[in-house]
């Protein structure tokens, strides 16, 4: 039994991402951090061996190209069926260390209102600043937050885009620190690219953000795909790091008088339902 150090049960018993499997070193374990503890992650063929710093083995599984582990007794990981679709390219777009809490990074990922000002000329432009109304709900089983029917004008929605387009978005938050975005594919009409943010919670104010791509674009070379994602992430990083407090406030009317976004209101409500206290102010 590992000492929880006061970490809430939902956080303690979840699977957490601890790196992209393909990017693990081949010559020995990688040392990293999870929930304030030192851990090692080593490649074992198609699997991985994860241990606490003192050598205690932890549960490990590979899913969606990443290594997942837990300090507690985890249930099943959320489903991401698109990963198994034969015509998708699945890859880690980029991984960045950021000095912020896990839920701040998820909230930023859900927030379309920052596109025109932070990702000007790519995900938004200043003369199309409006976020049109969309639907958001906590699923009936309480296991995820879903935002749907989001529409946004984007000058360059993806690496493969050839011009601006009104892009349709759908978000799922199936884990407190994992968010999955579905957006119109620029190359396969009627299908959606999947872009996921998998947050490794190194500490309460220290994360590694992994941007996973499950996309229908067969043509853009890998370096260009990675550059596109990195360019966007480099724009978000200083904004996340300058946001104070670093932990996400969950107490009532935390964001008053600033109008909080619908998706973030539902996300905060869901975290309260889960009893999450890690990385938040309650
Ligand atoms: Fe952003």
Short summary:
By secondary structure, this protein is of the alpha+beta class. Helices cover 18% and strands 36% of the residues.
Kindly provide the radius of gyration, computed on alpha-carbon positions and rounded to a whole number of angstroms: 18 Å
The top level CATH class name of the largest domain: Alpha Beta
Give the bound compounds.
fe (ii) ion
Low-confidence stretches: none
Characterize the main sheet: 7 strands, antiparallel
Number of separate helices: 5
Percentage of helical residues?
A: 10-25%
Biggest sheet strand line-up? 8-14-13-12-11-10-9
Helix-strand string: HEEEEEEEEHHEEEEEEHEHE
Q: Quick one: how many beta strands?
A: 16
Provide mean pLDDT, rounded: 93
Total separate domains: 2
CATH architecture of the largest domain: Alpha-Beta Complex
Which class of secondary structure composition applies to the elements? Answer: alpha+beta
Percentage beta strand: 35-45%
Give the full name of the CATH homologous superfamily of the largest domain: Naphthalene 1,2-dioxygenase Alpha Subunit, Chain A, domain 1
> Distance between the terminal alpha carbons, to the nearest Å?
27 Å
Output the CATH topology of the largest domain: Naphthalene 1,2-dioxygenase Alpha Subunit, Chain A, domain 1
The coarse silhouette is globular
């Amino acid at each position: 039994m590992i000492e929880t150090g006061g970490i809430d049960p939902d956080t303690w018993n979840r699977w957490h991402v601890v790196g992209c499997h393909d990017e693990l070193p081949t010559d020995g374990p990688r040392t990293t951090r999870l929930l304030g503890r030192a851990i090692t992650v080593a490649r074992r063929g198609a699997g991985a061996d994860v241990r606490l710093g003192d050598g205690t083995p932890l549960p490990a599984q590979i899913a969606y190209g990443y290594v997942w582990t837990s300090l507690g007794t985890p249930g099943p990981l959320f489903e991401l069926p698109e990963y198994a679709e034969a015509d998708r390219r699945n890859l880690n777009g980029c991984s960045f260390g950021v000095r912020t809490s896990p839920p701040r990074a998820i909230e930023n990922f859900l927030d379309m209102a920052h596109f025109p000002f932070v990702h000007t000329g790519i995900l938004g432009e200043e003369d199309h600043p409006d976020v049109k109304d969309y639907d958001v709900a906590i699923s009936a089983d309480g296991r995820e937050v879903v935002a749907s029917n989001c529409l946004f004008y984007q000058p360059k929605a993806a690496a493969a885009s050839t011009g601006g387009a009104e892009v349709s978005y759908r978000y799922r938050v199936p884990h407190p620190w994992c968010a999955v975005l579905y957006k119109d594919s620029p190359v396969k009409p009627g299908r959606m690219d999947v872009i996921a943010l998998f947050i490794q919670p190194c500490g309460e104010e220290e994360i590694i953000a992994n941007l996973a791509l499950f996309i229908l674009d067969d043509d853009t070379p890998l370096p260009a795909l990675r550059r596109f994602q990195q360019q966007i992430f480099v724009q978000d990083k200083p904004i996340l790091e300058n946001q104070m407090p670093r932990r996400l406030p969950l107490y009532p009317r935390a964001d008053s008088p600033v109008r909080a976004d619908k998706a973030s209101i539902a996300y905060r409500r869901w975290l309260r339902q889960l009893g999450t206290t890690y990385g938040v102010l309650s």
